[in-house]
Amino acid sequence: MRDYFVYTTSTDPRASVMLAELTQEYDARYGKLFSPGGAAEEMQRYPPATFAPPHGNFLLLLRQGQAIAGGAFKRLDEHTAEFKRIWTHSQFRRQGLAGLVLQELEAQCQRQGYRQIYLTTGCRQPEAVGLYLRHGYQAQFDPAGDLEALRTLPFTKAVPRQASVPSHPAYVTELAGIAV
């Protein structure tokens, strides 16, 4: 069975495992560092329509019908998309899936007319910092500085003019009835 991308919404039942595990991971790493309500409050901060066309999108990478990775973006301004919820299921890490998700989200941003990408990660996610740097994102902070004091670590990247399809042998995109 091939892995494939599906553009859908955060209310898709296939996204529930992803969002639940992401919430647990945020709580384990950050507790109440960012808000008194912890990760659950953060995960409820944006209504599902925020990550829907025409200004956003919500992506799942599926294997045998189960979400193994995903991410989303929303409009930050007319030319800039903000990536959110980049995630890989804990059982499927270290396979390059997060990089595939980034490449597909970048391609979709290009298709939707964005020219710039903005994203943030938390100070306790060194693997995310490494991922973004490896994929050409520019740190908007000093990576050698006190990251814990910064708490939120911003990155930017110009949307590739002709965003490429990831070179993954099992790459297929399915559009789940969602306008792109």
Automatic annotation (TrEMBL):
<dbReference type="InterPro" id="IPR000182">
    <property type="entry name" value="GNAT_dom"/>
</dbReference>
<dbReference type="GO" id="GO:0016747">
    <property type="term" value="F:acyltransferase activity, transferring groups other than amino-acyl groups"/>
</dbReference>
<feature type="domain" description="N-acetyltransferase">
    <location>
        <begin position="13"/>
        <end position="160"/>
    </location>
</feature>
<protein>
    <submittedName>
        <fullName>GNAT family N-acetyltransferase</fullName>
    </submittedName>
</protein>
<dbReference type="Pfam" id="PF00583">
    <property type="entry name" value="Acetyltransf_1"/>
</dbReference>
<keyword id="KW-0012">Acyltransferase</keyword>
<keyword id="KW-0808">Transferase</keyword>
<dbReference type="InterPro" id="IPR016181">
    <property type="entry name" value="Acyl_CoA_acyltransferase"/>
</dbReference>
<dbReference type="InterPro" id="IPR050832">
    <property type="entry name" value="Bact_Acetyltransf"/>
</dbReference>
